[in-house]
Amino acid sequence: CDIRSLGYEEKRKLLATIEKAVAFVTTMIFQDGSSQLNSEQVLTSSVKGVVVLVKNQTDYPCLPGYSSTDCTWDAANEDDKLIYLKTEWSSLWEQEQQAHKKFTWQVLFQMLRCKVPIICFNAKDFLRTLLQVYGNEISWKQVADSVVLDPRIAAWLINPSDTVPSFECLIQKYFEKPFSVETVNTDTGPLRNTSYQNLGVNLEKLYNVMMDLAHDLQVQGLWKLFCTLELPLIKILAVMETHKIHVNKQELKKTSEILGLRLKELEQEAHQVAGERFLLTSSHQLREVLFEKLKLHTLCEKVHRTEIQQLVSTSEVVLNKLQDLHPLPKIILEYRQVHKMKSTYVDGLRMCMRKGFISSTWNQTGTATGRLSAKHPNIQGISKHPIRITKKQYIKGKEEEIVTISPRTLFVSKKGYTFLAADFSHIELRILADLSSEPELLKLFQEPETTDIFSSLASQWKGIPSEQVKHADREQAKRIVYSVVYGAGKERLADCLGTTPLQASQFIESFMQKYKKINEFTKKTIEQCRNKGYVVSIMGRKRPLANINAQDYKLRTQAERQAVNFVVQGSAADLCKMAMVEIFTSVVVSPNLTARLIAQLHDELLFEVEDSQIQEFS
DNA sequence: CTAGCGTCA
DNA sequence: GTATTGACGCTAG
Predict the structure, then answer these.
(1) What pTM was estimated for this model as a whole?
(2) Which of A106, A214, A221, A281 is deepest in the core (most CB within 10 A)?
């Protein structure tokens, strides 16, 4: 039914039906007639309304422990109701509109409140839209109370390599499995179908797919992970996406100009020392200048080559080696740094800006390891390190000035609020210590004087006092540790270490000697993966690795490294998500705390906290 | 070494 | 002219 045509009594009845419902299956529909079930619809189309299938009887009596053999979706739902809620209004009919609008959100509010599962494909988008449309009526803490189920996330838990399963794919997979359902070929070309009847059928299918997925999750031991971690996260991400982060617009414009000027200078310098004009951003043209004209690679032994075409690489490692032979490499290196800074972190950020604010889009199913990913902007990838550039100033007094540009400072907290970050320290290494029970590694963590493992290791390896360990040393130590434990080859480690491959392999040897149990752990997880075909994280997250028994050496060893890495990185992702859920719920439960989550940077949570609440919140 | 995303050719 | 791919460089561990 369309709620616009309902009388008072009918509305009351509808609310009563909702009260008794056992599940809701819902999707948003857009201006262009598409719905959330139409794979990868564009965000440009605005939301027209919401269609809800109200399930009043259940084909699956109790959700967790049902048997899936008797699913007869086509005949068993006479009591189910399909309702259409319009959320967008023309300016006509002021009076009636108000009434409709109010009733619409009454319905939606009750759906959220009554703790009955709301099944939605891409539920995060649904919740976010609700928060955006009814921002004045519904607080984010109320959305946090709802119970949502997302089949897409369920499917991803079962197969995390399949990073974007579409609705159509799920239908195919889970419908043709038990028995073929009257496959009217409407789902091969459903894209423009605005018929609600058809949508009703699709929602019914979605419901059944979710039930099948729920069953599979249980069979595979993923149900708890799904319910306690991934489902609550949907709401957290929806709330996070509705929060806007303020960006210093003027500063952004100014730094863009400064960087642009510096790029021009560097371009001129490069042309001068090269003796010809060429495009600095083109690796092809650079290769011609560097190696065909100047023949710099002949003065230097062993230079990296590109994987496919076996051309001489123009990568950072090669350019670093060529630094002393010619002034050009250094200029290119700085050009690339400044260019990256400008295009990605400054201009890229400006592109994402709406009225002085940005808000990332979070993808819960974007990785194979359970980590989150973000885009527009990728707030997890914004450079930490500032760069220094010399700015020629044409103001009298001083000729030039050194300015430092650090992209992270471009984000500013609201007035009266401050950013608060909470992060795990060395989380993957701690997990590795725990899983391998390596005594030497465990000892390092238990010693109270070790405040920073990587700094300690850096001072140990370099033979310098820990106070003198610089940031770069620590960073290098960190890269080395992770490289070695995840199975780096000697060549790659040599690049990392800045030594010869021979020394690198000796380093690997002594590392393995000192931390024997790490090697045992590695072997054990590869062995388990070979037997079962998949690996498992602390919270039971799974990653099937089809290539683990492959004939091809390259493919097989890659799968082996992925297996080891997954167990550690996936477990770290589990813990970070647990932290997110726990902190979020404690804020929701608190009557006075208002702290908002801004971003998750894998092992770090960034909040915006009211100044007066910093103590209590932290 | 493993995960990602953005930019450029 | 538009779409895809590989190389590169930044993030996180």
Answers:
(1) 0.90
(2) A214
